[in-house]
Amino acid sequence: xxxxxxxxxxxxxxxxxxxxxxxxxxxxxxxxxxxxxxxxxxxxxxxxxxxxxxxxxxxxxxxxxxxxxxxxxxxxxxxxxxxxxxxxxxxxxxxxxxxxxxxxxxxxxxxxxxxxxxxxxxxxxxxxxxxxxxxxxxxxxxxxxxxxxxxxxxxxxxxxxxxxxxxxxxxxxxxxxxxxxxxxxxxxxxxxxxxxxxxxxxxxxxxxxxxxxxxxxxxxxxxxxxxxxxxxxxxxxxxxxxxxxxxxxxxxxxxxxxxxxxxxxxxxxxxxxxxxxxxxxxxxxxxxxxxxxxxxxxxxxxxxxxxxxxxxxxxxxxxxxxxxxxxxxxxxxxxxxxxxxxxxxxxxxxxxxxxxxxxxxxxxxxxxxxxxxxxxxxxxxxxxxxxxxxxxxxxxxxxxxxxxxxxxxxxxxxxxxxxxxxxxxxxxxxxxxxxxxxxxxxxxxxxxxxxxxxxxxxxxxxxxxxxxxxxxxxxxxxxxxxxxxxxxxxxxxxxxxxxxxxxxxxxxxxxxxxxxxxxxxxxxxxxxxxxxxxxxxxxxxxxxxxxxxxxxxxxxxxxxxxxxxxxxxxxxxxxxxxxxxxxxxxxxxxxxxxxxxxxxxxxxxxxxxxxxxxxx
Length: 616
What we know:
Blueprint (H helix, E strand, L loop, with lengths): L6 H11 L21 E5 L15 H12 L6 E6 L7 H9 L2 E4 L17 H4 L1 H4 L2 H4 L4 E7 L4 H10 L5 E5 L9 E5 L10 H18 L5 E5 L7 H9 L2 E4 L22 H4 L9 E8 L3 H10 L5 E6 L16 H13 L3 E5 H11 L4 E2 L2 E2 L4 E4 L5 H5 L12 E6 L10 H16 L6 E6 L5 H11 L5 E6 L3 H9 L3 E4 L10 H6 L3 E4 L3 H9 L4 H4 E2 L5 H10 L1 H16 L2 H12 L5 E3 L5 E5 L2 E5 L5 E3 L2
Parallel strand pairs: 1-2, 1-4, 2-3, 4-5, 6-7, 6-9, 7-8, 9-10, 10-11, 11-14, 15-16, 15-18, 16-17, 18-19, 19-20
Antiparallel strand pairs: 12-13, 21-24, 22-23
Helix pairs in contact: 1-3, 8-23, 13-19, 15-21
């Protein structure tokens, strides 16, 4: 939205209104008195709510909608809004100032018991007593805006008694069109999850932050493959400005009769009846192959006018096998092409996947004519908490810890034979040189039988390395394990090809196979760092591991260099902005040097070259 507040006024509001380091909050008072020459717009309402629901749009959205539709784009006005809460929260103040609004709370009568004088809409009628700021502070009020049947009478009295030259506007909530919406079709929402779940939340959170920066009123929804939403999930989603949509069982069905299954998303008529209650959905987003088919089906049957966007997160039915030796690859490719043919745009995670599908999409045809669909590369980015941490190097390292993490599949444990042999050979070299043997931690991001997995891998390795197998289900656990390690072996994964990315972000030395998605990402965007962390085809894995743990200081110096290069990457920021621009055309890219990302009640100062310009 093009804010009706001028640059100077907006700067004044943000400076006098909200500062995270002080208590100078944006409430109306002498310190917020506008210049005599500036005009003002006064909204009369009960509260500054930022959530709302389908039946009652939030006040913030209504303010933005009114300013977009009713005001001349050249009008420069300072915005004010009354609230009935004597004590306005910091979150309300901050959110209001983000759209250029100064809140006006009431003042109680002196020596009045709060229990005998509770906030009520009648306070607006007695504005001389409860809102003296209206007369004493507001100057040159050009508009007085009220809500029909809610603050209509109060608006009429205030306009007639205090601002007779102002124009009275009344908003009919029933006549307001619902804001446009974007529906992300996915299975989980959890800030502590890893892999594709982490990528989904990070992407949606980044998108919502950019949406807020340009003042765009766009509701964001995300499905869950769960019948219950925990309090922490709901609060985290609300902090990201996301509404979660949970699943439902068949009527009168027990958990045993109707257990949660992935195909529930395909049977959305039964298990997601709330989808039909959503209005004005403009975009449906799915992850191919995970939820791509379900997203296409939901778009076709419930939101036929919406655009379908797909995010490719996998380019092989089994990424642990070479594409040429994978017997099921043909069917997999056909299914992915069929989904893409229904899409309005496709995003592929990372350069390796992008290059693979960019060639495959040449075969897409529609009505005997070549259909060109936008195909965009979307680069991976972990949660900010990984960038915020740093691995501390010990003065003298004798017992190195080598970590590998990702999806551990009992049916495919033979794939660990190469890793087990290499780690054991490196340990033997250390042992022969009278150094301590390493510990190899195999961490699964999914539930496993750790004892059984350990028993199988023990048979694959020798006696020159210790083995520890465990589950790592949260980002916090992974941060701790990475900080206690000396090297990360980035393994390939069937669902998410970027395990090892978190180690890269935290500054831990990594070793990635030359043909992995992570290695291709590093080669394409951080070529100055690739020699130390990529295992070339002509190199022996055991010798590379031995070299990295024998020269720990050098490895950590290179890892820190890679971390800083990653943090400063314009390409990563640009890919996320490009994704957002497919929903919000007014977003463009320019370069700035610093961004502060608020995450998990902490402020992480992350040096990323990222910025947004608004086309007014």
